[in-house]
Amino acid sequence: MMKTINRYIITAVSLVAIALGAAAQESSSSAVMRRGGTDRNSRRNSTEAAGPQVTQRMEGLYEQTPVSDADMEWMRVIYRQIDLNDDKNAPLYYPEDLVDGQENLFRIIMRLVANNQVPAYEYLDGREIFTDQYKVKVRDMLDRFYILYTEAKGSTEKNPKFTIEESDVPANEVLTYYILERWEFDKLTNRMRTRVEAICPVLHRSGDWGGDAVKYPMFWVKMDNLRPYLAQQEIFTTDDNNLATTTYDDFFANNMYKGEIYKTRNLKNKSMAQLYPDPDDLKRAQDSIQNRLDTYEANLWVPSREELAAKREAEALAAAKAKEEADAVASRDDDGDAIEAVTEEKPVRSARSSRGKTSTADKKKDSKKKEPKKIKEPKQQKGNSNNAVRSVRRRK
Hints:
The protein is α+β, with helices and mostly antiparallel strands. It folds into two domains: 57-300, no CATH class; 302-371. 50% of the residues lie in helices and 16% in strands.
């Protein structure tokens, strides 16, 4: 009997322990769920309050690791001027105003710089140094270019933030961009790559009395700092497709822009216009630099048999075409010589005929001059006069 009672007691105790353990586990799991749900809600609310942000993970995703100088075989720094009046660069300018969430490039850059989300650096005309020493003070920059602003909420002396109204952003005056390109050949990967290192918006403003607009470079912004934001803005690149299928980041990464070379990094720190004052020499120098950039990688490799055969065929076709053009020019020259020979013979014949005519005329003139001698009218009159005299004498 005692054994049976003890067995029941042990069973009851074990059941109570199991129930208490289950309750404790449920309470702990519910506490974990509540704590996790609270954290998620708080994070979501804070994110919504702060607006869309770029996380460190996104920055690391879009950040390009710079290639070490020891790993590069060749490198060249190119300065280009992008004219927004060119149709190929139009996606950087339009829309001028904010339309359906679409912003042009300058509005994005100006908003990020004013919010102190992206640092800006001084424009030093060929001596760009992207260090803290040469960071732009946004307030001074806005005052220098007469851009109206107000201090944003949460602005401090160490972290100044400014708000610029949409109508006060001079987006229609930024008609040019300067970009800093780096052409690098990496010997580890054996490939050439081109990347835009920095970009500088340029204002075009005329004086009070009109005249030609003066260019005012504003500041440099590193493209690595802009890429996480530019990758979120989709743009139109053609009128044939009304869907925004390209981002600003793709536009620059794929070299979809068009710009002329206005400077290369050199010891004298001179622009192309200073090195080549003559416009024709300047154009030839720009074309020569661009051709070297485009063909540098191809000239490093030994061509394959297929490439050699294609090259020989192209050279043969070019030689045949040149020969046909030369033959055509020669035939035209022969026809022209024949025509000239015919035209030259006509004056000779006319001269001969004219000489013959002049000789007959001379003969006629001579005959006319000699006719009085031949006619000898005075002798006939003399004869007649003798007869008359004789008749008169006879009458007498």
